[in-house]
Design a protein that fits this description.
The complex is a heterodimer of chains A (299) and B (333). With 299 residues, chain A is an all-alpha fold. Chain A is built from 13 helices and no strands. Chain A folds into two domains: 5-85; 90-293, MetI-like (MetI-like fold). The longest helix of chain B has 41 residues, at 16-56. Classes of the chains: A mainly alpha (299), B mainly alpha (333).
Chain lengths: 299, 333
């Protein structure tokens, strides 16, 4: 017995919702668990059966991690409080992360987009060179860590914002060039020609004619690269020791502690690290594919 | 594409105006490229030269003793020629790390791709709720990898929710070890990585499917081809560049995966999660053996450079065919 066309469509629709909802649960669960754990009091972190939504929800984790307000417990958690108090400087880490990612992203997008303009309009880099640029991104950064830290110690750049900014500039530039080029390619050339005929200089043409037209594209590029730098871990772990600690490195200090796991605190910090990225990422969700696809996806 | 790569107001060749124009473009080019090249020259190049030096002169941070200045590194290093290279090439643990990384990257790439492509196929035509699903599905990509590592640990913990859910489903108390058991540790990390990066394959395949021209599919339909044949013989060939892109980028990124493997297990239990990045990191920063780390890094650099260059060659070839296809089509704006 074969189904009619409309029956088949219904069956497919049901199947689609079924599969998509299962995946949605898989995707949402870890995020839910992180948020839920961040509100749990100490005794529920390791409880069996696990607590899904705490009935004793508390802000204590957030207060301890972000506001340094400790509760003075008398049992073994007391030891824990001294540990979290002495080691963690989340606001400083947040400041460092924000500073490093905003500075390096601004520089990258600034140079990347002007370079992309040159490539798009004057072909100042051949297609072969454009692909060579990708090498910077594709070779794993691990092969660099030993020599770069020795070289940085010679230059006095270890544990400095400048040091990280320069490396992030180099490793994200390929994305900036490719992504902003894909936006610039879409701007019709007639406007520039008109400006040129009217005698405007090149910089002025770029600044007053082209940039306004690709503004939203550049914002998307900026936010895209901000996501990459904000969550970078390896270079930050290696080149920042005590002075310049970024948020991901700060988080990993909890894990390295000998005092045992402090899930609630970790979760409270994790939420703080992740939230800005999710907001930013959802703002540019339409452009994410373009950022990753190096001109391979047409629309 | 190439024909209108330069602005059409290009003056006649050989004229004075054209020469100053070409000069202007050259000046513009170098002005933009200089900061980039300067950084390459002063940051990356010296690092690679140093790496070369230390791969022939044995040196560990311990050798420098209390004197930690830069020059002391050179005084404390000692010529060993190709010894370290020979060591590395006969280092079994290094060989296993390479195999482990290749397996890990292959598994993750295939996993992400199958899941991402399947979801994209189910979702690329509009339906009620599409936007909401899309927003949820890209969330893992927007979560910081190190956060995923630690959240993963909370979930995979022996008294954690995953064992609880499995217990409820099987009606027995499940106490599986997902992380601290040699046989499964790397698989668990791979699953976290797949969770993290399936959205990447998903958005690329979504964009690819959305950009497919309609005409070939309609033509195939009129000719009486069924959906299966249209998929394999029309859609998949047209999607080839995008598929290659999704596979290649994912493979390269997972070869370099570090936050989850290191953040959770530091190569353990035993050496079950000692992937290439972890093994290099351990040698250079746990054992402070800069020289051996340098040799390993160089070997991996050569290997990855070969992989990356063939990847780039492939991508370029695909992009050329894509450009050709779109340029031959009349512009629709």
């Amino acid at each position: 017995m074969s189904m009619t066309k409309s029956q088949r469509r219904h069956a497919f629709s049901a199947f689609r919702y079924f599969v998509l909802t299962i995946w949605l649960l898989i995707v949402a669960f870890p995020i839910f668990w992180m948020v839920s754990t961040s509100f749990k009091p100490d005794r529920e972190w390791f409880a069996w059966p696990p607590v899904y939504i705490s009935e004793n929800a508390t802000l204590q984790n957030y207060l301890t991690v972000w506001a340094d307000v400790s509760e003075y417990a008398t049992d073994e958690t007391g030891k824990l409080e001294t540990y979290t108090q002495s080691l963690q400087r989340p606001w400083e880490a947040l400041g460092n992360s924000a500073l490093i990612s905003v500075i390096s992203t601004t520089l990258t997008v600034l140079f990347g987009s002007v370079l992309a303009y040159g490539v798009s309009r004057y072909g100042i880099l051949s297609e072969g060179r454009m692909f060579q640029l990708l090498m910077l991104r594709m070779v794993p950064p691990i092969v660099l860590i030993a020599p770069i830290s020795i070289w940085y110690s010679a230059l006095g750049l270890l544990d400095s914002i400048t040091g990280l900014v320069m490396l992030y500039f180099l490793t994200t530039l390929p994305y900036a060039v490719w992504m902003s080029k894909s936006f610039i390619d879409e701007v019709p050339r007639e406007m520039e020609q008109a400006a040129e005929i009217l005698g405007a200089s090149r910089m002025r043409t770029i600044w007053e004619v082209v940039l306004p037209l690709v503004r939203s594209g550049l914002v998307a590029t900026f936010l895209f690269i901000l996501i990459l730098t904000w969550s970078e871990y390896l270079l930050a772990l290696l080149l920042s020791k005590t002075e310049v600690v970024t948020l991901p490195v700060e988080l990993s200090k909890y894990q390295g502690s000998t005092e045992g796991r402090v899930y609630g605190r970790q979760a409270a910090l994790s939420v703080g690290i992740t939230l800005p990225l999710i907001v930013v990422g959802l703002m540019i969700r339409k452009h994410l594919a373009r950022g990753f696809s190096f001109g391979m996806v047409r629309r | 594409m190439t024909a209108d790569a330069t602005i059409n107001t290009t003056p006649a060749p050989g004229s004075k105006r054209e020469r100053t124009r070409a000069q202007g473009i050259r000046r513009f080019k170098w002005a933009v490229l200089t900061p980039f090249l300067a950084l390459m020259l002063f940051i990356l190049m010296p690092a690679f030269v140093l790496q070369g030096y230390f791969s022939f002169f044995a040196f560990s941070i311990f050798d420098a003793g209390d004197n930690t200045g830069f020059s002391s590194y050179f005084e404390a290093s000692e010529w060993v020629g190709l010894d370290l290279w020979a060591d590395a090439l006969s280092d079994d643990k290094f060989g296993f790390a390479i195999i482990r990384s290749l397996l890990f990257a292959t598994g993750v790439t295939v996993g992400c791709f199958i899941l991402g492509f399947m979801l994209a196929l189910l979702m690329y035509r509009p339906f009620r709720g599409q936007g909401v699903y899309y927003i949820f599905f890209i969330l893992p990509m927007l979560t910081v990898p190190i956060v995923i590592a630690y959240t993963g640990e909370m979930i995979l913990y022996q008294n954690g929710p995953l064992n609880d859910i499995l217990s409820i489903l099987t009606q027995t108390r499940v106490e599986a070890q997902f992380l601290y058991k040699q046989e499964v540790a790397l698989t668990s990390i791979a699953l976290l990585e797949i969770w993290n990066w399936t959205p990447f394959s998903f958005i690329i395949m979504m964009a690819g499917l959305a950009s497919l021209p309609k005409e070939p599919q309609e033509a195939a339909q009129i000719l009486g081809a069924n959906k299966w044949r249209i998929f394999w013989e029309v859609q998949v060939p047209l999607l080839r560049p995008v598929i290659l892109l999704a596979l290649i980028l994912r493979f390269l990124e997972s070869m370099a995966e570090f936050p989850k493997t290191w953040g959770l297990l530091q190569g353990g239990p035993g050496s079950a999660t000692e992937t290439v990045p972890v093994y290099i990191f351990i040698n250079a920063w746990q054992f402070f053996d800069i020289s051996y780390g340098a040799v390993l890094s160089y070997l991996i650099l050569f290997m990855m450079a070969a992989i990356v260059m063939s990847a780039i060659w492939l991508l370029r070839r695909e992009k050329k065919s894509l450009d050709a296809m779109y340029d031959s089509k009349p512009q629709e704006g």
